[in-house]
Amino acid sequence: MKFGLFFLNFLNSKRSSDQVIEEMLDTAHYADQLSFDTVAVYENHFSNYGAVGAPLTVAGFLFGMTQHLKVASLNHVITTHHPVRVAEEACLLDQMSEGRFVFGFSDCEKSTDMRFFNRPTDAQFKVFEACYEIINDAFSTGYCHPDNDFFSFPKISVNPHAYTEGGPAQFVNATS
């Protein structure tokens, strides 16, 4: 049986963001020592529902302080980021961790976040699909060449290519 932890990193009046992050780092260290399989970091912006706005950055830090633990971005919000940049960062984490990175991603949960990041809210699901297609092409082939309503550019090589054949393990976070 495999065990893992999911860090929501909630903020409240009794815990500052510094304390929340320190607790996450301490817990990840112990999880690695106790042979847990995975820790997952949740992305959230502008609320007390989470202290981490950049789960891929946190993943890189956690890889530097652990030896065996897989680290997942529980819900890297691909609709608020450029998909090539997401693919580059995810492949870099996959390379540097020698396959310990798990790419968990999602659509944006809040239209206020979409508007803040200047992303189209009227076609949000189509943006999600376009982003995923670009990222998945980059993971599986090392290249992408989209031509859709949201992204159009010549064929490029996403560097580094993924360490793991086909790209890092993936899962989509969804709610209903």
Enter the CATH topology name: TIM Barrel
CATH superfamily: Luciferase-like domain
Structural class: alpha/beta
CATH-scheme architecture: Alpha-Beta Barrel
Question: Secondary-structure element sequence?
Answer: EHEHEHEHHEEE
Number of helices: 5
Fraction of residues in β-strands: 15-25%
CATH class: Alpha Beta
**How helical, in percent, are the residues?**
25-40%
Radius of gyration: 16 Å
Quickly list its features:
alpha/beta; TIM Barrel; five-stranded parallel beta sheet; 7 strands; 38% helix
Task: Outline the structure in words.
- With 176 residues, the chain is α/β, with parallel strands linked by helices.
- The chain has one domain (4-169): Luciferase-like domain (TIM Barrel, Alpha-Beta Barrel).
- The chain has helices at residues 17-33, 55-65, 83-96, 111-116, 124-141, and strands at residues 4-7, 38-41, 70-77, 101-106, 143-144, 156-157, 169-172.
- Strands 1-2-3-4-7 form a five-stranded parallel β-sheet, covered by helices on one side.
- The two termini are 28 Å apart.
- The model has no long low-confidence stretch (mean pLDDT 92).
List the helices and strands and how they pair.
Elements: E1 4-7, H1 17-33, E2 38-41, H2 55-65, E3 70-77, H3 83-96, E4 101-106, H4 111-116, H5 124-141, E5 143-144, E6 156-157, E7 169-172
Briefly, what is this?
The chain is built from 5 helices and 7 strands, in the order βαβαβαβααβββ.
